[in-house]
Amino acid sequence: MTYLSRTLHALLILFLVVFGGFPIYWMAVTALSTNAELYNTGQVWWPQIGNLPMLLADLADVPLVRWLANTAIVAVGTTLLSLTLGALAGYALSRFRFHGKGVIGFLLFMTQVVPEALILVPLYAMFISLGLMNSLGGLILANVGFSLPVAAFIIKGAIDAVPYEIEEAATIDNCPRFGVLTLIILPIIAPSLAAAAVIAFFAGWNEYLFAATFLMDNTHWPASVGLASFIGQYETPLSAVMGAALIFSLPAVLFFLIIQRKIVAGITSGAVKG
Amino acid sequence: MPHIELDHIGKSFGTTNVIRDFNASIADGEFLVLLGPSGCGKSTLLRMIAGLGDITRGILSFDGRRVNDWTPSQRGVAFVFQSYALYPHMTVRENIAFPLVMDAFRKWYHIPVVNTVMRWKLMRRADIAERTARIAEQLELTALLDRRPANLSGGQRQRVALARSLVRDPSLYLLDEPLSNLDAKLRTQMRAEISTLHNRVRKTFIYVTHDQVEAMTMATKIIVMNKGEIQQIGTPDQIYSDPANTFVARFVGAPPMNLLDVATARGTVSIPGGPSWGHEAAPENALMGIRPENLVLNPEGDGPIPVEVVVVERLGAETIIGCRILSDRRDQRFLDTDLVFVRVQGNPRIVAGTRYALSYAAEDVRWFDRATGAAIPHATALPNCA
């Protein structure tokens, strides 16, 4: 790599880092500004650490921990259920031949075409009938409906790439079908599982529409609905909103940082001939 | 150790018959090689014996018991795949121990998370650890036990695959072209290792290959297959010396048996438009087959078949000489089918374009029916040709 291309490469990475990181930085700057600065005198460009006690005082009365816990329950529940069912569905779609396989694949794909808002009313009726209103379990189910097909397709694609001989070898070695899936296939496709987990987790973490519709009790709210409740008719405490949003985004960033190594390992694993 | 019977075995995919009416008996401790070109159904047959593929027709029995519906694990077979099929996320030690760990697994051990814990625990069980270490030592894998398959060479991976198949001490070993991904040198080495292994464990081996060198060097018995049908069953010597038909004659041997399109009449053999010579008891409407090493290259005029050297392949210990029979035919092409190959020892000074004469001993000739390609029973100890 020449000096020029190395420099261009570095500049490009720098630009992408700034482009991606600036909103988070700006969130921190805004959170540590006073509302007077934000609405009247103009915002400064750097974080004012001295305003931290004031921010903490503003957030003291907000049930942020509960909201974050609710969000985590929804996100983790959505991820676990999507991956479990997605692994079974993906394996069946990849390895079994059965009538209607193409139709099932098509219908799963179609779930991605239908916008959430479109099924909100029918889903509302179903939730009332099933007694799922105002429950985090119901919210998880609604989210899984959207993230499961994506997970199933990602996992199916990954299993397609695993040589069938490996499964046959495991069968010869006295491993039953379910064991083949859990002991052999899933560890091999771990990077794809990580990718599916990221999608399902963020679908659950960022959930707003269903939560705002189905959860009436503010103790069940996830952080997204809680944050939106800051917006008042006459006043919106911008610094408190941004402070809460910052706290809301940190666990998600942490989750991604933990799992991204797996994803990168998966992307590069086929690059070098074994 | 099972005595294996394949009784009218057939396999179809839809309307396509891949294997038709396959009958064979495989004795205990035999090293049977299924030899044939790609697509002849030999791997399909091996997979049916392993239980990895359904049997469409016929009965497969081990020691007289019908096993058509048995699972692979019930059959107690080991299978070595062409691509080795090692578990890429496991170390060599885990790969080798996997069959033992699975044998010790109870149903509830397969519950996610429990399975990982139990596998970890079983890997440390004394008998499993000891047996894994012993097999690894036998196959010189001890130093590699903590590596993953991606960090091994082709030969090492092959040895891991063999170790994994050995560890459970099965009664039947099935090997599906296990050496085809190795380079020539390693293939020779692994060939010797597999033969040694067979001599040591004294179990039944069924080995699939399209490489006749592997078949000839390792087998105690060979089944030559083509288009889903058995062409010949016999020892390597029988297959080579007395091929049952022109397919076997041309498939086994490198270069293959020379098949001369001759006309025969009243003790005389002649090449249309070319030379003729005396040959007692030559059948009519037959192709004349003779192995390259049974032809003798003489100076011009000192033999019944005048030839011109076209190709000289020097292999070091021996030389293969491709000759064209001198005839008046104008449609002769420089193709393998038209050339007569002669194998001579050493590295003689022979150059292309030189003319020689070929001779042979009559007992080395094999005759094949021109219409069916089947071998015609030959009389031995005939006098040398004129």
From TrEMBL, chain A:
InterPro entries per UniProt: BP-dep_ABC_trans_perm, MetI-like, MetI-like_sf
Membrane topology according to the record: Multi-pass membrane protein
Localization annotation: Cell membrane
Main localization category: membrane
Keyword Cytoplasm assigned: no
Keyword Cell membrane included in the entry's annotation: yes
Domain ABC transmembrane type-1 per the UniProt entry, residue ranges: 68-259
Transmembrane annotation, as ranges: 7-28, 67-91, 103-127, 139-159, 180-205, 238-259
Gene3D superfamilies: MetI-like (1.10.3720.10)
Keywords: Cell membrane, Membrane, Transmembrane, Transmembrane helix, Transport
Domain of life assignment: Bacteria
Family of the protein in this entry: Belongs to the binding-protein-dependent transport system permease family.
Name of the featured protein: Carbohydrate ABC transporter permease
Automatic annotation (TrEMBL), chain B:
Pfam families linked: ABC_tran, TOBE_2
InterPro entries: AAA+_ATPase, ABC_transporter-like_ATP-bd, ABC_transporter-like_CS, ABC_transpr_MalK-like, ABC_transpr_MalK/UgpC-like, Mo/tungstate-bd_C_term_dom, NA-bd_OB-fold, P-loop_NTPase
CDD domains hit by this protein: ABC_MalK_N
Record-linked PROSITE patterns: ABC_TRANSPORTER_1, ABC_TRANSPORTER_2
Gene Ontology molecular-function annotations: ATP binding
SMART domains in the record: AAA
Keyword annotations: ATP-binding, Cell membrane, Membrane, Nucleotide-binding, Translocase, Transport
Residue ranges of every copy of the ABC transporter domain listed in the record: 4-252
Similarity field: Belongs to the ABC transporter superfamily.
Stated name of the protein: ABC transporter ATP-binding protein
